[in-house]
Write a structure and sequence with these properties.
CATH class of the largest domain: Alpha Beta
CATH superfamily of the largest domain: P-loop containing nucleotide triphosphate hydrolases
Order of helices and strands: EEEHEEEHHHEHEHEEHHEEEHEEEEEEE
Shape: elongated
Number of domains: 2
Number of helices: 9
Strand order of the largest sheet: 6-7-8-3-9-10
Strand content: 25-35%
Largest sheet: 6 strands, mixed
Distance between the termini: 37 Å
CATH topology of the largest domain: Rossmann fold
Number of strands: 20
Amino acid sequence: MARVVIENLSKNFPGPKGEPITAVRGVSLAIEDKEFVVLVGPSGCGKSTTLRLIAGLEEIDAGTISIDGRVVNRVEPKDRDIAMVFQNYALYPHMTVFENMAFGLRLRKFPRAEIEARVKECAGTLGLTPLLTRLPKALSGGQRQRVAVGRAIVRQPKVFLFDEPLSNLDAQMRVQMRAEISRLHDRLGATMIYVTHDQVEAMTMGDRIVVMKDGVIQQVADPDTLYHAPANQFVAGFMGAPPMNFFRGRLSCQGYTLFFHERPGAADPAGGWRVADDATARLKVWVDREIVLGLRPEDLSLADTGEEVGRVQANVDLVEPLGAETCVYADTGVHRLVARVPPKAAVRVGQTVTFSPAMGRGHYFNPADGTAIR
């Protein structure tokens, strides 16, 4: 397998009037040998373009891509020793499963015996042995996706590239297939680069996750770090479902204690939400200034009603029972929020409820540029 190094990668596409539209801007990233890296972000963030640049399916405007120590900017896709799994499977409808999986090897003039051995071994790994004589039209979506993955595996490339391979599958099949791909990575010890817009896929599959926005990398980290120590407000809001709640307010100081006020004009320090002691030192310079507080839905718990210090009152406008938990969407009059509460909590639409924020798990952001305050 191989290490992939991307340095200052940029790509522009022509707009409707010939103006350049930037898809990827100054991306630098090192993907280690045998690592599973996931590129994630909203539609149009540049993740698929980055993958296609690595594959050689798009021309690079600036920067370099190295695979196993060799710069491949001007190397044809077929000579980069990569294998790509596409969103639409890209199977030949007139070929059987065996023929689809063997096609790339036949193009490279591999001996017939080796082709048969590789395909049968891979089919056994992916549970495709009973399907080798079928045409794609006789397969389910999950089976077709396994064939596409198998076609890549038999190549035994240096790098595997996955471009949103599960987006056409139903929810249950997506869960099954992402588990299969993760197990496959562990078994093969392969270098894999995986693109998705689904942050749940990213969190459950990647050794490291690359979060992108507008063609720029926002943060590269392992799933736990991304969730608990996001670099900025975009990453904090994108990673997590439901997303993090953001409250724009102001800090005040009473003695050695800081308070966050959801309503910036509030004058009484005792009426705010008490900031955790371990955050006081880094937040003192923000006293009497606007700041953004981030709280994840699980950090807002139901509390007894009343006008107690540090409580959040909100009017419920949507309740989503999910079995193991219930998501409650509510409005404080200043901000909208969503909270995860126990499944049997007695909460109804139109009711005013009181939440207790776990301020010790709060995140703070600069409202000017969204960067996390460390």
